[in-house]
Amino acid sequence: MTTGKTLAVLSAAAAACLAIALVPQSKDHIPVGETAPAFELQGADGKQYALKDLTGKQPVFVLFWKERCPHNGRASALYNNLFAAYAGKVQFLGVVTSTVDGAKKWAESFGLKYPLLSDSTRSAISAFQLKKSICVIEIGTDGKIAAVYPGYGADSLNALNQALAKAAGTSAVQVDLSSAPGGLTWG
Question: Per the domain annotation, does 19 fall within a domain?
């Protein structure tokens, strides 16, 4: 092989490695583009919620909470404000690692504006490969993971606001997110 061809091959290989390195990878959640795992969970409101019944018409936003996450109190107010702005216009559910009775108490204590589902066995959380709390996963009408909004930092919440507006078919609503941390906050 000539020096020119060798350099061309090495350059192409280096470019391919760089491209792979620049693609965002995460071991903290299911990859974007994967089919969303099916789940059926009971809500704090006593209803059964199955993902198969929710997909197809518009995106579904699922907010995953760890019951004893230290950020819950601060973050829940931000998510309540955000989702109240699009109430009745988007599909949004919360999932918490708690029993149904625990989820009822949890929803009441934080004044949640959306259905909260019990995942006491962590089956949905495991299926979505979640390693950290708090995380919103957007599931597209095709049933695939469309986007992931980790934590409750300002950037993630602002991106989520834009996605909710798009799903609602409206302009983004001005929501007070000023108390959100500046950086990514989840754990």
Answer: no
What's 143's domain CATH number? 3.40.30.10
Confirm if 116 and 107 have CB atoms less than 8 A apart. yes
Termini Cα distance of the chain: 51
Tens digit of each residue's pLDDT (9 = 90 or more) over 118-163: 999 999 988 988 877 788 999 999 999 999 998 888 888 999 999 9
Helix (H, G, I), strand (E, B) or coil at 117: strand
How far is 136 from 181, CA to CA, in rounded Å? 16
Alpha-helical runs (H) found in the chain: 3-22, 51-54, 72-84, 100-110, 123-127, 154-168
Note whether residue 110 is domain-resident.
Answer: yes
Sign of CA dihedral 62, 114, 42, 50: negative
Among 68, 116, 59, smallest CA distance to 91 is for: 59
